[in-house]
């Protein structure tokens, strides 16, 4: 699959996730995250660090968006929350490698922590 096809596949998976039943949610989120990480790696291998960072951030915020979306089922929200660590840790590795400092990572981690606490409080 080339980059254009992979981008299209990512968009299709993101759309599918909005309409996904709980039965297919795990597989869809897993495939979405895998596709996103493959795209980020594609850009990293070509020394396009800005695109690599942007795609990792897009994946992270797409997952957070699904967690906060009231139209998405609670199972899908929970799975998306559980999967946010993958792009977050990839961003941590990216920031350490390319910037030598982790301030941007800490901001993302803090945002995830706040949203995670709010999400878990609402589900009690």
UniProtKB/TrEMBL annotation:
Top-rank taxon, per record: Bacteria
Protein name: Uncharacterized protein
Organism name: Pseudoalteromonas spongiae
């Amino acid at each position: 699959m080339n980059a254009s096809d992979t981008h299209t596949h990512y968009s299709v998976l993101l759309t599918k996730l909005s309409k996904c039943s709980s039965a297919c949610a795990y597989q869809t989120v897993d495939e979405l995250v895998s596709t996103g990480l493959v795209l980020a790696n594609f850009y990293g291998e070509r020394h396009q660090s800005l695109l690599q960072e942007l795609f990792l951030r897009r994946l992270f915020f797409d997952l957070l968006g699904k967690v906060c979306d009231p139209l998405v089922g609670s199972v899908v929200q929970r799975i998306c929350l559980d999967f946010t660590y993958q792009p977050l840790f990839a961003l941590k590795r990216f920031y350490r490698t390319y910037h030598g400092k982790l301030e941007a990572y800490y901001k993302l981690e803090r945002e995830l922590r706040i949203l995670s606490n709010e999400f878990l409080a609402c589900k009690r």
